[in-house]
């Protein structure tokens, strides 16, 4: 993921993300037989984009290690574990919206306090205007958007959502639309999604 995000930088010019992925895949059988620890979780997360079954495995490891709870941040490597939690959370909500199946991670089972060193999408760093410090967290997608996606699935696409009367569903849609507008307004004007969605084809 890092090599993809920084592929235009000279130090990553010769990197091969696909080769890294293949290397991780060769370790998968051994991974399944090992005791769950932070390294096995990292391996599963790296592969999670390729298969939802591997994401399910990563989520189970995450829960076993306590990464879904904020208090783990006070333990050794706790901040890294919480960063992996948010990465899994974002992937899970993306897949739920994209494929229409229930998310693996339920919000009521997780502490959803944002990391202290999380770089919000409203910052210049998130849009690669300035160099990113190694002390700051950056994710493939804004995790505040992942929280909204979780609400979208629960309120509109879950069994609960489908059982609601039309008037209630319309109310939910308006509320979610306002949340999205509020989030968008925190982005730099030049990076609003509308600008890219409405650009004419070259």
TrEMBL record:
Residues 51-121 form the Xylanolytic transcriptional activator regulatory domain. SMART domains: Fungal_trans (SM00906). It holds the Pfam family Fungal_trans. GO terms for biological process: DNA-templated transcription. The keyword Oxidoreductase does not apply. Coiled coil: none annotated. CDD domains: fungal_TF_MHR (cd12148). GO terms for molecular function: DNA binding; DNA-binding transcription factor activity; zinc ion binding. Keywords: Nucleus. This is Xylanolytic transcriptional activator regulatory domain-containing protein. It comes from Aspergillus viridinutans. The lineage of its organism: Eukaryota, Fungi, Dikarya, Ascomycota, Pezizomycotina.
């Amino acid at each position: 993921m890092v090599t993809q995000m920084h592929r235009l930088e000279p130090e990553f010019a010769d990197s091969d993300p696909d080769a890294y992925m293949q290397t991780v895949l060769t370790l998968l059988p051994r991974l399944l037989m090992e005791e769950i620890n932070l390294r096995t979780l990292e391996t599963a997360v790296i592969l999670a984009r390729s298969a939802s079954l591997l994401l399910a495995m990563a989520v189970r490891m995450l829960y076993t290690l306590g990464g879904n709870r904020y208090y783990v941040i006070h333990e050794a490597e706790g901040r890294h574990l919480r960063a992996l939690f948010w990465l899994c959370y974002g992937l899970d909500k993306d897949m739920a919206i994209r494929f229409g199946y229930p998310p693996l991670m339920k919000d009521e089972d997780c502490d959803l306090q944002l990391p202290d060193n999380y770089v919000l999408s409203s910052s210049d760093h998130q849009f690669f205007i300035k160099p990113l410090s190694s002390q700051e967290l950056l994710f493939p997608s804004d995790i505040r958007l992942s929280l909204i996606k979780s609400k979208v699935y629960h309120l509109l696409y879950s069994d609960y959502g489908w059982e609601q009367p039309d008037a209630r569903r319309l109310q939910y849609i308006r509320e979610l639309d306002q949340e999205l507008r509020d989030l968008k307004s925190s982005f730099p004007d030049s990076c609003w999604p509308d600008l890219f969605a409405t650009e004419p084809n070259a």
